[in-house]
Amino acid sequence: MKRLISLFIIVFLCGFNISTVKGEEKLLADIEKSDDIRHWNKPQGRSLEVSQESPLLGSASVKIYPYTYISFSELSGIAGDWSGYDAIAIDFNNTTGRSQPLHILIGDKDWIKAGTQYWDRYNGNHMLPPGRYTFTLGITGLYRGELGSRFNNLKDVINPAQIVRLDLGIGRQGDKGKKPIYLDNIRLISKELPDFIKAFDFGPEQQNLQLGFTAVTWNTEYSKDKGYGLRQSLGSSRDAVDDGFPSVLYRDWVSMSSSWTDYEFVIDLPNGIYNVFTVYSDCGYWGGQAIRHTKRHIEAEGKIKWSENLGRRGNYWKPNYLFEDVEPLMGQDFWELYMEKIFEPKSFRVKVNDGQLNLKWHADERRSSNVACLIIYPAAKKKEGAEFCNEIVRQQREEFTVAAVEQDLPAGGSLEAIPQKEKDKGYIFFLTDYEQDTYQTTIPQPEQIKRTKTIYACLDEYEPVTFAVRPLKNLGTAKIEVSDFRNPNAVLNKENFDVRVVRHLSRRGFNQIKYRIIPQILKNFDTVELAEGITREFFVIAHIPENTKPGDYTGTIRLKSDNGAINETIDVSLTVYPFTLDESEYVFCFFGTIPDIKVARMLRDFGFNSFSGGSRITLKGFTKDGTPQLD
Asked: How many CB atoms within 10 Å of residue 253?
């Protein structure tokens, strides 16, 4: 059944509330009876059931189970001519209790002509959160291939007027046959913004647009007919990029400042006062592509309206150090923790006197004024305009939050297996293996609950003692004390022991936003908070100087809190051998730039004997005998 109606769109992923957007909808599938899905192609051995258990539109919906693959051809009435619309939307009710992957294939007639290759169709990886949810996918600017590897063969976007195939892969294999997922109300939607809003999505020529926004790319030059555009084109298409992160609007950008000029964006407007809202996209696809400015500002009508000066913190400070002291914990809101600080909107007011608003974004380093979006509205519409901008930010947050799913981590052991006398202390103290990851979720095996440790080391070697605590309640602030290590003939001073705590970072997969929180950094510390339910691991690293006398040493490592909630001691036996280790015959190196000699020495101490990546070495010239002069 198909129908075409004008309506207000209320709920969808990239949608607006009833006061901000209206548009049109074309219903492709409203499932009420079995006959409605007779042309849905399903895998062999799988069934699709029309059910009245969870109607999403009307009185029924399609009931499936995770790890189901559905294919729609033109015969189904779903694939076909999608032109004239901005997005496809599908209602889901995910009753599995956790987010489920949603894999999407979209092919057009050019995909068929090219031989139905993988790289010539759209292949998208998305997520379905628990509960009722409307999935929306913009269909203007759909890439071919994968998010991180696009347009390898055919160079144009998917043609919405010639859709021949839509496939949905729903749910993870591990949840197969458990709780169901319901889907219904497959439709095309279009968006029309309020007349007083001017909204632009900056990005490459083939960008996937924020619904209702107007595209601006590197060569969108101003014309009187359009009434907006760049005063002149940028240097090349490489100045307009899609990083694929974190949302449709924020992930792509146009670099509005080069090493030789600032590019100007102009828009014809009636004289008056306007509010301007704009967002930078600062991340870059690879780490080395992130912003690296010290100073930058935004200029409107020849006056600076916003500026920042990072001073000594400039040149990669934001990407490398902004979150230096932030450690993600399980269950935290990553939008609040990271994204709203990275993608913080810049807003200001400007007066237009000559019928045209002129804007420039300046930075003292190239690729550091990467503009993701621009919204302009009259100051007389301050309340409505602010609501619109807030709604746009909310949409980006929702889109990111749905995709940024925290992946489960292994627990290791179980609390039931831990002796009660250990649990009665309010924590579990245990030794760890530094060759195995210890996560925030880790519960030890009973055999790890020990308070003695024997280690062996050669001269000029580093050898760690690693241990952890799993607080069953808040234990307060704790510190570590290391004694001198002694034998009858010598002392290994405690200054030779480096005390560090394991800090965790989030890591996402290639082409994905879902993430895992994993151990990444060994950080020096004075005190550390031991919070309930967060396993905390420690490294005490012994360095054996070359002049150390060989033999057997003993000493202690003590973990204690200020409030007395924990006080544990490890008795350590250390055997020092009377020789040094040979240099490795293999090359070990850190992949990436080494920022300074201090880091290089630290890596050398821990066994690295080479380096790779873009180390900034300047060739000053050559001596008379041809020796290069490097700095």
From this structure: 28
Whether residue 328 is preceded by a cis peptide bond, meaning omega within 30 degrees of 0, is no
Q: What average pLDDT does the structure give for the chain? A: 90
User: Which whole number is the average pLDDT over 400-427?
Assistant: 93
For residue 99, the one-letter residue type is: S
Supply 57's token pair: 């539109």
Spatial separation of the C-alpha atoms in residues 249 and 230, rounded to whole Å: 19
List all residues 6 or more positions away from 218 whose beta carbon is below 8 Å from its beta carbon: 204, 205, 230, 233, 234, 235, 236, 237, 239, 240, 254
- DSSP bridge partners of 515: 406, 508
| Integer Cα distance of 463 and 465 in angstroms | 7
Two tokens, residue 150: 């696009």
Instruction: Give the burial class of 241: count Cβ atoms within 10 A of its Cβ; 0-12 exposed, 13-18 middle, 19 or more buried.
Output: buried
Report the DSSP pairing between strands 272-280 and 370-378: antiparallel
> If DSSP codes are grouped into helix, strand and coil, which group holds residue 37?
helix
Cβ atoms of residues 155 and 129 within 8 Å = no
Do the beta carbons of residue 249 and residue 393 sit within 8 Å? no
**Do the Cβ atoms of 292 and 365 come closer than 8 Å?**
yes
Q: How distant is the alpha carbon of residue 451 from its chain centre?
A: 39
Burial of 234 (C-beta count, 10 Å sphere; 0-12/13-18/19+): buried
- Assess whether pLDDT exceeds 90 at residue 184: yes
Q: Which of 247, 458, 263 is nearest to 359 (CA)?
A: 263
| Residue 45: per-residue pLDDT | 57
pTM (predicted TM-score): 0.86
Of the pLDDT bands very low, low, confident and very high (cuts 50, 70, 90), residue 280 is very high
Residue 255 has pLDDT above 80, yes or no: yes
How far is 177 from 168, CA to CA, in rounded Å?
A: 17
Please name every residue paired with 488 in a beta bridge, in sequence order, or none if there are none.
none
pLDDT band at 163 (very low <50, low <70, confident <90, very high): very high
